Amino acid sequence: MFCNFCYAQNSKLDSAYYYFKKGKNFDFENKHYKAYESYIQSKKLYRAINNKDSIAKCDINLYYLIKSQNNLNEDAKPYLDDYSKYAEEKNDSLMLLKANNAYAAYFWDQDSIGKSSKFYKKSLILTNKEELKKYKASIYLNLAALYTLKKPDSANYFFKKTIHILDTSDKIVMVGFYINYALFFQKQHNYKGALIQLKKAEAIQLNAHQLKYNKIIYENFAHIYQESGNYKKAFEYYKKFNATKDSLNNTAQNIAISNLDKKYKNDIEKQELKTKNEKKEKQILIEQQKNKQKENLLIGSLLFILLGGIIATLTLKNSKKKIKLAEKDKEIATQKNITFLKEQELSIINAMVGGQEKERQRIAEDLHDNLGSVLATLKLHFENLKINREKKKINQEELFDKTEGLIDQAYLKVRSIAHAKNAGVIANQALLMALQIMAEKISLADKIKIEVVHFGLNERLENSLEITVFRIIQELITNIIKHADAKNATINISLYDKNLNIIIEDDGKGFDINKVNLKDGMGISSIKTRVKHLKGTFKIDATIGKGSSIILDIPIL
């Protein structure tokens, strides 16, 4: 029996796919208006048959299409939000990576470096999966470019990471790397290094994408030569840039507005025909009507101005009242928050002091009950040894053995007390759990929010290593709370290929590394020593007003 429903479904699927491919072709040809129409039509047809995967593909293409337009007021972000929501529902790693990268670029455009970095690092964690490893170099490169202007040490760190894993067969990624590396050298006023990188980029042939990337390369050449004082070369590359720009603009002129032409074509033709056939008498009537309209327009404008003035006055008075009320409400809310925070801080301090006092009492009791009696007996044994020595008795061997046994017993008791003290930190918790609990407790005070982002910590590390790493991170977070005046901080910790990578970032006031003595009250010198003992590396990247980043790499031997 012939299935009409199945036929209709297949027909819509074919049509949807046809419009999607048309959109891709128009997009490639820079016919963005037609591409937009095709994507929208494709999405409508996919929606009719509830093909969610293809709807998501339309959404991400629409997002990038709209985002690429300079003078378009339409917000592209809702398309990205829909794509990301579906990626999370499906739990598709590749889709999630694409969504994270798109969000990172979006916030980069908003000059929100912290948010952009957060999404790139989410993508970086995903690339630890075998099927997504090939994207790791691109994300390292994006992070390097992101940090180039404001965090040069972090930028250099990620550029070096990129170099080690670059796929030289991916020409577009290679060109992107050289262009961004050139920009990094330029910002360091290393113009020779910048020119070397750009020449490498220029030498790569990209076929269909050549014109687009030549524009970027020529413009960067011009800027670098101008900054370095070589105005002749700068002028030459500005001419090349303008020629390339004109070529692209000519291509952009091919953006179709055929639908608008069709819509208004008949009206224009009718209007032209009507104008040709009109008589002189009718033209006079039209002129009279125009004059009348001008008079009416003038009167209407005066009334509008008068009415507008009245409305503006009333609106201003209303606004002032609202502003005053809002300021009072804000003042009350601020006072409440201050009071609450003080109470919270006092509670935390009291709890901390109480805990410390209990711990001191416990240790004192252990020392008194367990170690005190042993030491007292040991003292008696030494007195007996002294007496026997004076009396020159020969039965001292047994007494020596007993005394030695008591010393061993005292040592073991001290060791057990110390072990019990250390065990309270991490013994019953993995490193990750201990960090999460610490972050949660600190965040409860509402003074700073600590977030833990992790990957690969599926199994416990060696106990002493976990304790050392926890103490290092604890000390760094304490420094942020004391000195950074930050609202948010992130602990990024991942274990991959026998390497423990830790990045701690905050959005605080930052500092000038060259002007601050890190030994004064920040414990950095001690942390560096501990990291060095673990055969790891320790880097600080901080800028005044832009927060700070601390990067640790610790090998797992």
Can you put this structure into words, describing what you see?
Helices cover 73% and strands 7% of the residues. 25% of the residues are buried. The chain is elongated, with a radius of gyration of 36 Å. Among the domains are: 1-91, no CATH class; 315-426; 431-555, Heat Shock Protein 90 (2-Layer Sandwich), CATH 3.30.565.10. By secondary structure, it is an alpha+beta fold. The protein contains 18 helices and five strands. It has a five-stranded mixed β-sheet, sandwiched between helices. Residues 248-265, 302-307 and 421-425 have low confidence and may be disordered. The protein has helices at 4-28, 32-48, 52-67, 77-90, 93-109, 113-126, 136-147, 152-165, 171-187, 191-203, 210-227, 231-252, 258-277, 280-391, 397-426, 431-443, 463-484, 524-533; strands at 449-455, 488-495, 499-506, 537-542, 548-555.
